[in-house]
Amino acid sequence: MAPLLQRAQQLAERRLPSLTRYRRAEKLPIELHRRRIYIVPTGFGLGFSVLLLVMLVGALNYANNAALLLTCLLGAASAASMLVAFRDLDGLRLGHIRAGHAVAGQPIELTLAFDSSRVRQAIRVELGRDTTAFAIDAGAVVHLKLMMPTTRRGWQSLTRLRVWSNWPLGLFRAWSWLHPEQAVLVWPRPEEAGPPPVAPAEDARHMRLLQGDELAALREYRVGDPQRHVAWKASARHDNLLVKDFERAQNRPQWQLDWRRLDGLDDESRISRLARWVNEAHAQQRHFSLWLPGNIIPNGSGPEHYAHCMNALAQLP
Description:
2 domains, five-stranded antiparallel sheet, four-stranded antiparallel sheet
């Protein structure tokens, strides 16, 4: 019965313009009102209606006042449930949407903020195949997390959201559509494997050894060693002077990721390779810079620098 109702709903949306007046994108916040909330009976509601009709015919046929009263009470309860289902959505407001990060082909997480001036129960939000239910108190804000599929890098518009409820008795389904005027930025998919970036020769100053603080070993004295590093007590037991050799840390070179050095690759292949290099540099906690056409990102490191570079790659034409 559920697939039949869904097909009937889709047919009604295609045939009746009043059901599709809100297909165009809207600016946030979006508030539901009586002109954009629609109600249809559920499968259980249709069966219950048939049952009430049979009860009504039997009560009238046999002049049974008790059965007639019961039928009227059940009919009034079903009508009241339709009003309650409508009021469960009326006045609900979508305040803002916050998007996470994802590469092309992976779902991106959306955080939706709903607020209401009164208590609401058993509301469901659908985005594609992802569905979540929530309840909200008066004056409260609820944050819902939904996953939206992505297909390509760059800006991707949000698809329509369906908000619906069949509370309290499941006899009627009230629903509405939300189409926020917002887009999310999808990062490019890095290539699976390839050559590492080459450190420029002029950057050899970053390869110099740094003096450590911890004693590593003793070695023979060499001309030029400072006298304060001479181990006098240990040298007294040997024929030659011994010098304290401290642990030395080698500074890794910074990576200069340059679009111009990837000759022979098409634009999308260059973007994929640079995305892989940015991921590797971030994973190894390296300092790196990124040169792109019309956008030069200076040397840096950390999550903000990583997100800045991935955003720049995602927005390339």
